Automatic annotation (TrEMBL):
<feature type="transmembrane region" description="Helical">
    <location>
        <begin position="82"/>
        <end position="105"/>
    </location>
</feature>
<keyword id="KW-0500">Molybdenum</keyword>
<keyword id="KW-0812">Transmembrane</keyword>
<keyword id="KW-0997">Cell inner membrane</keyword>
<keyword id="KW-0813">Transport</keyword>
<dbReference type="InterPro" id="IPR011867">
    <property type="entry name" value="ModB_ABC"/>
</dbReference>
<feature type="domain" description="ABC transmembrane type-1">
    <location>
        <begin position="10"/>
        <end position="213"/>
    </location>
</feature>
<keyword id="KW-1003">Cell membrane</keyword>
<dbReference type="Pfam" id="PF00528">
    <property type="entry name" value="BPD_transp_1"/>
</dbReference>
<dbReference type="InterPro" id="IPR035906">
    <property type="entry name" value="MetI-like_sf"/>
</dbReference>
<keyword id="KW-0472">Membrane</keyword>
<feature type="transmembrane region" description="Helical">
    <location>
        <begin position="196"/>
        <end position="215"/>
    </location>
</feature>
<keyword id="KW-1133">Transmembrane helix</keyword>
<feature type="transmembrane region" description="Helical">
    <location>
        <begin position="135"/>
        <end position="160"/>
    </location>
</feature>
<feature type="transmembrane region" description="Helical">
    <location>
        <begin position="16"/>
        <end position="36"/>
    </location>
</feature>
<comment type="similarity">
    <text>Belongs to the binding-protein-dependent transport system permease family. CysTW subfamily.</text>
</comment>
<feature type="transmembrane region" description="Helical">
    <location>
        <begin position="48"/>
        <end position="70"/>
    </location>
</feature>
Length: 229
């Protein structure tokens, strides 16, 4: 059985991962669609910037967030002074860190899904009187749903395991930013923390594996419903 402190870490991890996935989904769909459908000057650079969180050390991502969105950051100082929004040492800040790190995974899944759609179907919808917006919501979006759900669940799994950017950006505050990975880190620095670290590691593996299995099942079910398999 988990202790109350461990349950708090599990609950916080699920909350952070859920909201990180939800908030990053709309821009992921937009950017994935732009990258899949349009060619423009500087596209390679833009694509690289979008995927930077995948290749940068997560501590670097956290530091960039700190100097950008911290209370004295380039943008964070205005959020703090004008709106009273402080992301430091908060669950909201942990959510931002998880969203930034997992964002490229969602974009990539959606981009691949859109790239696999026959544009002739969209053109046919346009010839029948549908506007570009109508064609997107009635044709493109349903066909890309396997990629959307798969990307969301993979993003969820990534957010559940986020450590480096979180601890650098919002520190390790129990009940606020101490998700499962940070709780494991804290347990390894406690004289009697081995049992706690092991329990949370098992929970982390179960949650991550569950998200990946759900991603595969959702992908197959939606493709089956759309007649793609």
């Amino acid at each position: 059985m988990l202790t109350p402190e461990e349950w708090t870490a599990v609950r916080l991890s699920l909350e952070v991962a859920f909201w990180a996935t939800i908030w990053s989904l709309p821009p992921s769909i937009l950017i994935g669609w732009v990258l899949a459908r349009f060619d423009f000057p500087g596209k390679g650079i833009f694509d690289g910037i979008v995927h930077l969180p995948l290749v940068l050390p997560k501590v670097v991502v956290g530091y960039l967030l700190l100097i950008t969105l911290g209370n004295r950051g380039y943008l964070g100082q205005y959020l703090h002074e004008w709106f009273g929004i402080s992301l430091i040492f908060s669950t909201a800040g942990a959510t931002v860190a998880a969203a930034v790190v997992s964002f490229p995974l969602t974009v990539n899944a959606i981009r691949l899904a859109i790239g696999g759609i026959d544009q002739g179907i969209e053109t046919a919808a346009r010839t029948l009187g549908a506007t570009k917006l109508d064609a997107f919501f009635t044709v493109t979006l349903p066909l890309m749903m396997p990629g959307v759900l798969s990307g969301c669940l993979i993003s969820l799994a990534s957010a559940l395991g986020e450590f480096g950017a979180t601890i650098t950006f919002v520190s390790n505050v129990e009940g606020q930013t101490r998700t499962i990975p940070l709780a494991i880190y804290s347990a390894t620095h406690m004289p009697d923390g081995d049992a706690m670290a092991l329990r949370l590691t098992v929970v982390s593996v179960i949650l991550a594996l569950g998200a990946l299995v759900l991603a595969e099942l959702a992908d197959r079910r939606i493709k089956l419903a759309l007649g793609q398999i």
